[in-house]
Amino acid sequence: MEDKKLKRRQEIKLKISDLAFGGRGISKEDDLVFFVKDAIPNQDVIAKISKIKKNYVEAYSIETIKKSKDQVDPPCEHFEWCGGCTTQQLDYQKQLYFKQKQISDILNKIAGEKDLDINPIIGCEQTFFYRNKMEYTFSGVPWYIGDESYDDVVIGLHVPKRFDKILNINKCHINHDIFNDILQISKEISVKEKMVPYDVRKHTGFLRFLVIRIGVHTNEVMVNLVTAGYKPEIVKPLVDALVDRIPNIKSIVNTINNKKSNIASGSTKLLYGQEFINEKIGDYTFKISANSFFQTNSYQVKTLYDYIIKTAEFKESDIVYDLYCGAGTIGIYISKFVKKVYGIEIVEDAVKDAKINAELNSIDNIDFYCGDLKDVLGSEKMDNIKKPTTVIVDPPRPGLHPNTLKNLLKIKPKKIIYVSCNPATMARDLEILINEKYSIKDLQPIDMFPHTPHVECVTTLILN
Ligand SMILES: C[S@@+](CC[C@H](N)C(=O)[O-])C[C@H]1O[C@@H](n2cnc3c(N)ncnc32)[C@H](O)[C@@H]1O
């Protein structure tokens, strides 16, 4: 194929042969690679070109002309428009196959000649309605589909690449099903009461986000209404309706974000019930407040934490650092196998939750510290705490900060357990650890996010 002839918006027939990290279909024609949105392996599609680069072309499927043998009907009515579950049309076992392959492709680049031994990915039993947290946006600017008409307030998710248009969601198939009821009640009341959604272009209006959480194993629900200002009288009808119609609501909070930044965080006021909900992992109970991180798949988190215990082979004498500890869940879960755990986390509310969680579970061999790991790890602030034998890191998607990596290498624990939600940044960090002082002992992919391109991976490293 003559790539010079390709033009933006051109329609082209492509055979999809693979699935790229991130969820787009791959097609290879001559020396050119096409990344095709909304396409899965073994499909033939008509795709429209959206971007032409020197070595690759970006396109999106507009028509499937040959179905893949692994294609299934996506149950979600929003699949075509919503960017959340990009692989919902691919059979779940095949999703797992491709996640395993992507991890192998990414990690083998860092291993040079030798083939890394990667354990078979652990899949989920519950593949729909698994998310315990969802952040929806209130908007007066819907993404129009066909000739559909909308109320003055829609609640939904951003259309991919559009910060200002919201896809009205009726029913999401990956969040807990009760969230769909809460979504409908919130729409009904905000329209009836003429509440004004926030406009992200004009920076006017009031209702910004509807964040819903559930403790799947306790059935306790939290609703966090994020608004541009504190006016509890405006949201009162919505609070009353939710309390009246959702019997397991335990907490309604109001996060106030007066700033232009379009994020669901700020100072938090209590509107109903208590400031937290409880969730259980195995024998442990955890309090989660609105601003604390908690693993979003409560069904699979026990598998992840049990795997950490298995691969770490803790000894009673071990001193463990739980870095990026969130509400202290990993540290508390492993504490009975070791002498002492130190957890470090940047979000103050999460550290407060972690301390409460340790008390709640009668754990007395764990301490928590609040701080940014790039400044705290290896600093004099940590001089009076013991050096670790094992360090568990569970960073957010950008991976480890160079300073954190440098100090981790200085501290030189015998074992590092790297828990990652982004294999690309994990591979980057592993390369440095391997080149300096460590060898990979074990690699275990775990699927926490069916139908999405995301995959979790636990890597165990041993000091050479
Ligand atoms: C993927 S979560 C892991 C949380 C916890 N280990 C768990 O399993 O629930 C990452 C955590 O790192 C925290 N974090 C992000 N950047 C940080 C930093 N620079 N220093 C310390 N903690 C950070 C986040 O607030 C979040 O709680």
Task: Write out key terms for the chains shown.
464 residues; alpha/beta; OB fold (Dihydrolipoamide Acetyltransferase, E2P); Rossmann fold; 7-stranded mixed β-sheet; binds S-adenosylmethionine
Q: Concise description?
A:
The protein is α/β, with parallel strands linked by helices. It is built from 9 helices and 22 strands.
Description:
By secondary structure, the chain is an alpha/beta fold. It has three domains: 3-66, Beta Barrel (OB fold (Dihydrolipoamide Acetyltransferase, E2P)), CATH 2.40.50.140; 104-125 and 299-463, Vaccinia Virus protein VP39 (Rossmann fold), CATH 3.40.50; 133-281, OB fold (Dihydrolipoamide Acetyltransferase, E2P) (Beta Barrel). It contains nine helices and 22 strands. The strands form four sheets. Strands 9-8-7-10-11-12-13 form a seven-stranded mixed beta sheet, with helices on one face. It has a seven-stranded mixed beta sheet with strand order 18-17-16-19-20-22-21, sandwiched between helices. A six-stranded mixed beta sheet has the order 1-5-6-4-3-2, with no helix packed on it. Strand 14 and strand 15 (284-289) form a beta hairpin. Helix 1 runs parallel beside helix 9 and helix 2 (177-192) packs across helix 3 (232-245). It is globular, with a radius of gyration of 24 Å. The N and C termini lie far apart (49 Å). Bound molecules: S-adenosylmethionine. S-adenosylmethionine is lined by residues 293-295, 324-326, 329-330, 344-347, 350, 372-374, 394-396, 421.
